[in-house]
Task: inverse folding
């Protein structure tokens, strides 16, 4: 049994002052020595609770063991049987609530850096070339995947591997979903995403961008005219919510989706090399405290804003962002105003936002999901001076899908109804997973749903093949 | 990539493109739009569907130059390609089965009303078109509009063709002429659509206008296109682009469309400089 180093092997990071002005990746990643050193901190537990903390059950103990033996290729191959996007998940999973949150070492010391190791293994492959994966015999059946976020990409990869003829249809001009338009370069370099997507394409997945499902193509067309025998819908929960406060449509007020899309998908941080502009004034307020709010705040710092304040109606304890992002945001100079709620946006006289009237809050009784509900403190209003506001209070499923695709049962908040273990929707041959079913969740949950649906689709299509063979 | 099969310069700043986009050609309906990108670092710009040919698999759009991206688009020639083209987006125009519909178009809007007129013709609904331009040379697609509409009224500011005056004057004349008008659809510059709304409001005739806020995705994901209609926020790309003209907060829309004025001017300036340099280089290359 090795002597355990009490703390996680540190991740080399870019200096906070310097990085707050560039979009280059913040975390530099482990080298082989650090990865193996970190792997040596694992106790190889009899009951590896880390694995049960991972939504897709990566056999973490075995992966780490292989890593400590410098068998990086084997370790990665093992991860990939459970998670097709290790380079992404190693970077963006909220490990503290998942795998690392359940690591036994974490009971006394810092948990084993599972995410950092996973990321290292994926990056190692990127640097040293991937191993060819053998593909099953072609099955001669076509499957359509709608949406190219983590759920769609995972389902596509698995089904392709099983020998199906897979086409991904994506509404935007580039694939990746939130990984492309939401999560910024400094957390998830687009090269990493491109490599994971290119690997799928090389393996035979066809990706068709600029296809808006329900508009460009309908479900009936796919299934009745184009010969797709099964469809997986992974269109995410992309509709931004607003607060319906006075002045919310003033110039300078963005949804976080718009702000982040301009920067990430459209390349506005490289304006004028890219044609799409973005405004990030001297003083910016970001409303909300999830991952999206952290990303928006940190992007605003990088886009040249001097003072960026996150305003949240609950307290730090109720914040939903990943801890690492929150810490990085603080280091980079983002400020936080907990227990404050905006109630009105103020016009500068020319139609631009110049202030945000807020109200202080205190925590009252817990609500139905157990979080203490914020209630306004009387006579506590004040005005925060701002040049831009980024509203980041969550998203809902886009109504475009349900409006244009009759026959799929939806929930009252507009999500698709699908079985948990299979993704089966109310219509035969149609499966769904990811944020469109669960509401905004995480990359790995979406990927896991894609994986389960792929296997259910395989069962469904195998049965269909069997019936066809009998007939 | 979407190949440009045919182009036609309609005015010095307006160009028609017939683009190969079979899925859009099949799915598109009058009143809808597409979003296109000229190159890999480009903006996504919305343009209305002017015409569709599902058999040939083509979509026709007409682009009017107002800034850098529309100029770059109009510099493309037959055989070249749009980098991206997604659609059809937005809700189709509601095509009445009977009655009399008047479509009003100004600028690129004269082209944009064509698909609606053709849709009405297919339903044998009576239609009139009113199109406006500064002067006779700037009237676009006259042949096709005349073909699609039961009656075509051309208005020019200088009287060089058709009626001398604004489209709204012609519209007022038509409404008060005694012939019943059941619906009006107007597409064009914001000032024109506003004026149409003001013209029809006293008569209480249903009036739809196609709003053109700044858009990015066109699928309801960003909220850039939000407009206030009847006191409620709507996303023009999925709830519109056609809205009841009497309920629109035009001031807000005009104001929101000015958000990036500085950046748009800078982009135009850069584009024009680069364009001049390219022309000089081309001229230099051909000099003996
Ligand atoms: C800014 C931001 C930061 C985040 N940070 C993290 C993080 O650090 N860690 C984490 O685990 N999770 C994070 N999340 C959440 C995570 O990204 C999502 O839960 C996950 O991406 C959902 O995956 P999905 O496959 O369901 O859909 P999405 O990633 O939303 O992808 C859906 C895709 O479908 C496309 N689409 C939509 N409608 C149509 C249509 N009609 N036709 C064709 N295509 C369509 C969309 O354009 C999109 O590309 C973050 C989310 C955001 C917004
Ligand atoms: C649903 C919809 C349908 C449209 N259909 C057509 C069409 O069929 N043909 C066509 O030529 N144009 C159409 N437009 C307008 C077109 O999208 C804009 O002209 C284009 O985006 C301008 O890009 P730019 O870079 O060339 O100009 P920019 O540099 O972005 O803008 C230059 C000037 O144009 C103004 N402007 C900016 N955006 C718009 C806008 N959305 N509409 C009007 N003026 C704007 C600016 O205020 C500025 O003064 C449509 C817009 C929408 C939303
Ligand atoms: S996929 Fe995410 S939760 Fe699972 S082991 Fe990897 S980092 Fe942890
Ligand atoms: S719980 Fe922690 S120490 Fe135990 S096997 Fe998992 S990673 Fe290793
Ligand atoms: S253009 Fe993004 S929501 Fe309408």
Result:
């Amino acid at each position: 049994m090795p002597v355990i180093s009490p703390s996680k092997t540190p991740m080399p990071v870019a200096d906070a002052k310097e990085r707050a002005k560039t979009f280059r990746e913040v975390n530099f990643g482990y080298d082989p020595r650090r990865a193996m050193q970190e792997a040596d901190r694992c106790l190889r537990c009899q009951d590896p609770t880390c694995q049960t903390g991972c939504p897709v059950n990566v056999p973490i103990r075995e992966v780490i063991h292989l890593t400590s033996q410098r068998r990086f290729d084997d370790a990665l191959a093992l991860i990939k049987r459970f998670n097709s996007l290790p380079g992404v998940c190693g970077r963006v999973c909220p490990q503290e609530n998942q795998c690392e949150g359940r690591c036994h070492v974490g009971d006394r010391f810092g948990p084993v850096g599972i995410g950092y190791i996973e990321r290292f293994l994926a990056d190692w492959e990127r640097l040293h070339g991937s191993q060819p994966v053998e593909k099953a015999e072609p099955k001669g059946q076509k499957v359509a995947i709608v949406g190219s976020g983590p759920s769609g990409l995972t389902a596509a990869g698995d089904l392709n591997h099983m020998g199906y003829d897979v086409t991904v249809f994506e509404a935007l001009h580039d694939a990746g979903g939130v990984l492309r338009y939401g999560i910024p370069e400094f957390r998830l370099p687009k090269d990493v995403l491109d490599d994971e997507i290119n690997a799928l394409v090389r393996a035979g997945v066809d990706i068709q961008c600029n296809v808006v499902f329900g508009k460009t193509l309908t479900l009936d067309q796919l299934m009745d005219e184009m010969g797709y025998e099964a469809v997986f819908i992974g269109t995410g929960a992309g509709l931004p919510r607003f607060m319906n406060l006075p002045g919310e449509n003033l110039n300078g007020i963005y949804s976080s989706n718009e702000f982040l899309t301009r920067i990430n998908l459209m390349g506005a941080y490289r304006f004028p090399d890219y044609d799409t502009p973005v405004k990030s004034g001297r003083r910016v307020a970001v409303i909300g405290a999830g991952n999206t709010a952290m990303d928006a705040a940190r992007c605003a710092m990088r886009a040249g804003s001097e003072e960026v304040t996150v305003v949240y109606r609950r307290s730090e304890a109720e914040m939903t962002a990943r801890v690492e992002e929150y810490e990085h945001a603080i280091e980079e100079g983002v400020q936080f105003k907990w227990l404050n709620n905006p109630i009105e946006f103020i016009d500068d006289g020319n139609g631009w936002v110049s202030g945000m009237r807020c109200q202080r809050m205190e925590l009252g009784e817990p609500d139905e999901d157990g979080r203490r509900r914020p209630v306004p403190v009387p006579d506590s209003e004040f005005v925060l001076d701002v040049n831009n506001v980024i509203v980041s209070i969550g998203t809902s499923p886009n109504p475009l899908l349900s409006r244009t695709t009759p026959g799929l049962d939806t929930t009252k908040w507009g999500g698709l109804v699908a079985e948990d273990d299979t993704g089966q929707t109310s219509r035969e041959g149609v499966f769904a997973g990811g944020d469109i079913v669960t509401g905004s969740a995480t990359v790995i949950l979406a990927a896991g749903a894609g994986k389960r649906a792929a296997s259910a689709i395989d069962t469904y299509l195998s049965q269909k093949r069997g019936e066809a063979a009998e007939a | 990539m979407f190949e440009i099969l045919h182009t036609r310069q309609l005015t010095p700043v307006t160009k028609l493109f017939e683009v190969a986009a079979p899925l859009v050609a099949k799915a598109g309906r009058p009143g809808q739009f597409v979003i296109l990108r000229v190159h890999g670092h480009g903006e996504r710009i919305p343009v209305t569907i002017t015409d569709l040919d599902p058999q040939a698999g083509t979509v026709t759009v007409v682009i009017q130059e107002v800034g850098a991206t529309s100029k770059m688009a109009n510099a493309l020639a037959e055989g070249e390609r749009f980098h991206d083209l997604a659609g059809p987006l937005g809700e189709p125009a509601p095509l009445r089965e009977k009655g009399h519909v008047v479509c009003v178009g100004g600028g690129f809007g004269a082209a944009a009303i064509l698909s609606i007129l053709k849709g009405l013709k297919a339903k044998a609904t009576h239609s009139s078109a009113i199109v406006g331009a500064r002067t006779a040379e700037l009237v676009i697609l006259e042949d096709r509009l005349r073909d699609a509409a039961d009656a075509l009224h051309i208005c020019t500011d200088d009287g060089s063709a058709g009626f001398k005056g604004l489209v709204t004057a012609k519209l007022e004349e038509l409404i008060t002429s005694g012939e019943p008008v059941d619906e009006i659809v107007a597409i064009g510059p914001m000032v024109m659509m506003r004026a149409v709304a003001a013209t029809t409001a006293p008569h209480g005739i249903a009036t739809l206008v196609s709003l053109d806020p700044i858009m990015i995705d066109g699928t309801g994901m960003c909220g850039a296109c939000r407009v206030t209609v009847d006191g409620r926020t709507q996303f023009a790309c999925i709830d519109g682009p056609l809205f009841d003209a009497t309920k629109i907060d035009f001031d807000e829309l005009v104001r929101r469309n000015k958000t990036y004025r500085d950046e748009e001017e800078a982009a135009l300036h850069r584009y024009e400089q680069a364009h001049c340099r390219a022309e000089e280089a081309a001229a230099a290359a051909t000099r003996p």
Notes: The interface with chain B takes residues 171-173, 181, 209-212, 215-218, 238-240, 242, 244, 248-249, 251-252, 254-255, 257-258, 261-262, 266-267, 271-277, 279, 351, 398-400 of chain A (CB under 8 Å). The CA atoms of residues 182 and 468 of chain A lie 43 Å apart.
